[in-house]
Sequence to fold (463 residues):
Amino acid sequence: MASFGIFTKLRKNHSFLAYLSVFVFVVVGATLAIYAISPNPPDYKPILTNSDGVNNPMGVGRGIFPGRVVWVRDTMATSWDGTNGFWWDDKNTNQKCTDKMFETSIEQITGKNTKKLAWDKLFRYRNALNGKNQGYKQGEKIVIKVNLNPVEKPDDNWTDKGYPSPHMLNSLVKELIEVAGVRGEDIIIADPSRYIVGPLYEKIRSNPSEEYQKVSFIGKSAIPSPQQFTPVPDTTNLIYFNMPDGSKHKMCFAQCYTDASYIINYGVVRAHRVFAITSSAKNNFGAVWDFEIKKFTPSSLHAFAQWDYPTPNKYKEAHSSPVLLGHKTVYTKTMLYIADGLYPAYNQTLGNVQRMSTMNNDWLSSLFVSLDPVALESVCYDLVCSEPNLTQNNPSFNGQQDNQFQECALANNPPSGTKYDPENDGIGLPSLGVHEHWNNAKDRKYSRNLGKKKGIELISAQL
Fold:
C-alpha cells in the first residue's frame, strides 16, 4: 500500500498524467523484482519434448575422438544416507573412488592406457589446435573454473546443495600435480563472482605437501586465508553479447583467464531454475566483469533466461552460450570440460541434492568429461531430463531449452540468424561442437554409438 500512498500525495500536488507514469514504473518495477525472486509455480509439469527429435546430430564434433563424452560411474564413491553428516564428508564420499574415476575418464577421453600418457595427449592436442608442437611446459598456468553459485557470502555455511565435490576437485588437482607435473603455484582455482571457501578450499589445503599449499584461489574478493586472491578484470579482454533488444553488451573476462595458458571448465550436473541446466557455457557466467555494474556478475546475461525475466529465450533467438564458449580466450585455451555428477542438485541455489529415481533411488555417483562442450551439455541435459527428481515443478523446462544447444552447435549459421562475433572484430564463430539427443533414456545411444560417422559418442564405464 505504500506505493498507493505515494501516488495519492503526488496527485494532489502535480499533474495526474505526469505522475501516472511514475506510479506505473514503481509498480511494474516492484512486480518484476518480486517475479525475479518468486518460487517456482506449484505443480508445474515440465515440457521435455525436443524440437529436433532424437539422433539428429547438428554441428561439428570436437575432440581427439570427435563428439566423445565419457561417463564414469561408481556407486561406491557416494555413501551418504541423507541424514548423518554431509554428502561431502570423508565418510560419505570416497577419495580413492573419485581418484580412480578421474584416472579412467582421462584415459577414455584420450584413448591412452595410462594416466601419464593421457595427460600428455591432452596438452599436446590442445597445443596442436593452436599450432604448437609441444606438451605441457613448466610455468604455464592452468585455471580451473569451478561453479560455486550457491556461495554468495564469505561466511556462507555449506548445506546440502549442489556444490562441486571437494573430493572430485581434489582428484583433479592431484592428477595435475602428481601425474602431469604441474607445479602447485601454477594452478588457480577460480570463480570470480563467488567465494571459494568451506569444504572445497579446505580439502585442497588439508594436504600438507608444499605443492598443494601453493595452489591459488581467486574468489569474489580476498578473504584472510592463505592463497586467497581478489579477481581483477582484464579491461582489454573484451567480450560482446548480442542482447535480445538487438544491442551489443560489452563485458570482459577476469585477468586470470588472460594470464592462463590453459583453462579447465569444471561444471556440475544439476538443473537450473531459469536456464534448465547448469552447463559448460553457463559455468563461464562467473568469470565476466560488467562495466556498468562495476563488478564480476552475470546479471545482465539473465536476459537469456528461459523464464522469470522480461525476455524469456525462445527457439531461433540469440543466446549468450555461443559467446561464452566461442570467445577466443576460452575457445583456444579450454583443454577439458568436466561435469561433476556425484550428488546432483535440483537447482543452482535453493535446491538440495537429489537421488536418482531412475537409478534404483541411488545417487548419480558420476563424472562426465569431454573435449566437446556442446556434446557434454547435450548428454547432461538428456540425463537431467530423464530424472523427475530434477525437473519436477521447474518452469525452465518449457519446451524452449534446446535453443541454447542449437545456437552453439550451429554458431556459424545459427537458427536465429545471429552473427556471433564475441571479439567484435568482424570474424564470426565456427560450429562449437555437436548437439543431439539420445535415442531413449533406457538405452542412451547417440548416433556414433549406433554406427554413424557423425554425432555424439557416449562412452560409459561402470567401476
